[in-house]
């Protein structure tokens, strides 16, 4: 007989929730207005100016609607997303989305850390003459940068949750200032007309559907962390509206900045190269100076405050015996190790693209199942006691809802198959189609099994 204590979790009572609208807005704006999003903007610049911007807006509006829904779930239950996943996947089965969430948030932490470390490498190059990454001996500076960023993350964890709020509040202000400066610099040297009319070379052209999938993968990555923060709010409006508005503004604004800066460099240099789309490289090419590099480091910290918190919650669900603080430490250290991957394969762009494919492939089905189960099959209510009871209704068979697992597999196979079709890659992409199919299959199949 399994012990109830083994699966016990903390539901945050209303009386202990202190995140206000600005805190929630700043959290999700800062999570998306960051270096990783800038780099994504540089990547989808291959879809052209109008193709890139329209794909960013469409995918963000759709994907972040799920963030609002998961945010509402956190507000209603006071539980984290990984705990809530026990209902559709089973108390033991929730290990699967937890593992995916853990690797996802460690991956995003690594992405932002690598970009920030690149900025630090530019600072080291200016101050000490150290070689840049890509040059002979360039590994040393970026490794030192990775270690420094990881130490800063650890210090913010030691300082506690309040430090995260402070980082977010300061970071949002700095991000807005940086965006304004960036826009001024970009359009001082290159006109809007030049950027809008720039034709990406055919060999580098990205289909519209692929651009949609790229943005969708980035946006959906935040959805699984939604309840981790909205469970600290005491208002439905704060839990649903603030994340949606903040996330869309952060995502779209920084995608546009990344896209425009990449195209502006292509216009002035005559060479389109998405490998040079990371903020540090672009800021250096545009002559933005050392202050820009410092801001890039700080914005990485604002984004990773969310990544590490959500990754820690996932690890805490996987191994309940480990406290949340210890989980946060472990996630930070593992993320630092993961940050070294681009140094091994030699290409940050290739590692980043592979990571986004992994994200879209698995997260779409998981989120579809999570939302359908709560709003469609459970009428917006979960039995919180049963979420930690190994003999309750969320135990299914041996603690796993095998039908939900099969639906994840269906979604993954469908995603891979759809990506083989040129018409899908050129138009609507694979992510949202696979989510719709999985949602229908899970809803209908669950209804039929309950009647049987």
- Number of contiguous helices: 20
Q: How much helix, percentage-wise, in residues?
A: over 70%
Q: Give the CATH architecture.
A: Orthogonal Bundle
The Rg value, from CA coordinates, equals: 22 Å
Number of strand elements: 0
Silhouette: globular
Please give the largest β-sheet.
Answer: none
Query: Could you say which structural class the secondary elements and strand pairing correspond to?
Result: mainly alpha
Strand content: under 5%
Q: What is the N-to-C order of secondary-structure elements (H for helix, E for strand)?
A: HHHHHHHHHHHHHHHHHHHH
The whole-number mean of residue pLDDT values reads: 86
The tally of domains stands at 1
Question: Would you give the CATH topology?
Answer: Hydantoin permease
CATH evolutionary superfamily: Hydantoin permease
Tell me the layout of helices and strands.
Layout: H1 21-32, H2 35-44, H3 49-77, H4 81-84, H5 86-89, H6 95-128, H7 139-159, H8 161-189, H9 192-197, H10 208-223, H11 226-230, H12 236-269, H13 279-285, H14 290-318, H15 324-338, H16 341-345, H17 348-377, H18 402-418, H19 422-426, H20 431-451
Helix pairs in contact: 1-8, 1-12, 1-14, 2-12, 3-10, 3-12, 3-17, 6-7, 6-13, 6-14, 6-15, 6-17, 7-14, 7-15, 8-12, 8-14, 10-17, 14-15, 17-18, 17-20, 18-20
GO molecular function: cytosine transmembrane transporter activity
Protein name: Cytosine permease
Pfam families: Transp_cyt_pur
């Amino acid at each position: 007989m399994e012990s109830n204590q083994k699966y016990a979790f903390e539901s945050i009572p209303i009386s202990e929730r202190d995140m206000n609208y600005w805190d929630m807005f700043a959290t999700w704006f800062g999570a998306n207005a960051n270096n990783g999003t800038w780099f994504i903007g540089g990547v989808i610049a291959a879809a052209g100016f109008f193709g890139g911007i329209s794909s960013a807006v469409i995918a963000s509006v759709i994907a972040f609607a799920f963030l609002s829904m998961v945010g509402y779930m956190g507000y209603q239950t006071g539980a984290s997303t990984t705990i809530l996943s026990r209902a559709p996947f089973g108390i033991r089965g929730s290990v699967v989305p937890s593992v995916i969430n853990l690797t996802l948030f460690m991956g995003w932490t690594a992405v932002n850390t690598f970009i920030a470390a690149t900025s630090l490498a530019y600072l080291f190059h200016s101050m000490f003459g150290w070689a840049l990454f890509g040059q002979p001996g360039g590994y040393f500076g970026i490794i030192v940068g990775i270690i420094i960023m990881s130490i800063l993350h650890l210090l913010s964890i030691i300082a506690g949750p309040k430090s995260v709020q402070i980082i977010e509040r300061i970071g949002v202000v700095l991000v807005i200032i940086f965006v304004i400066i960036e826009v001024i610099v970009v359009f001082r040297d290159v006109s809007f007309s030049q950027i809008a009319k720039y034709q990406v070379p055919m060999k580098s052209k990205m289909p519209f559907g692929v651009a949609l999938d790229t943005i969708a993968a980035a946006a959906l990555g935040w959805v699984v962390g939604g309840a981790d923060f909205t469970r600290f709010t005491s208002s439905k409006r704060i839990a649903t509206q603030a994340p949606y508005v903040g996330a869309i503004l952060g995502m779209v604004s920084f995608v546009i900045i990344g896209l425009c800066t990449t195209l502006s460099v292509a216009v002035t240099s005559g060479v389109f190269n998405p490998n040079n789309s990371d903020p540090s490289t672009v800021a250096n090419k545009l002559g933005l100076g050392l202050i820009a590099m410092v801001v890039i480091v700080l914005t990485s910290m604002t984004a990773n405050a969310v990544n590490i918190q959500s990754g820690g919650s996932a690890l805490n669900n996987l191994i309940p015996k480990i406290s949340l603080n210890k989980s946060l430490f472990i996630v930070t250290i593992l993320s630092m190790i993961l940050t070294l991957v681009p140094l091994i394969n030699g290409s940050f762009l290739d590692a980043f693209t592979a990571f986004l494919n992994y994200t879209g492939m698995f997260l779409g089905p998981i989120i579809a199942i999570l939302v359908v189960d709560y709003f469609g099959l459970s009428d917006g209510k979960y039995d919180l006691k049963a979420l930690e009871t190994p003999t309750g209704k969320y135990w299914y068979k041996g603690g796993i809802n095998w039908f939900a697992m099969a639906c994840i597999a269906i979604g993954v196979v469908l995603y891979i198959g759809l990506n083989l079709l040129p018409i899908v890659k050129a138009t609507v992409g694979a992510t949202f189609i696979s989510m719709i199919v999985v949602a229908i299959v899970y809803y209908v199949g669950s209804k039929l099994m309950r009647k049987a």
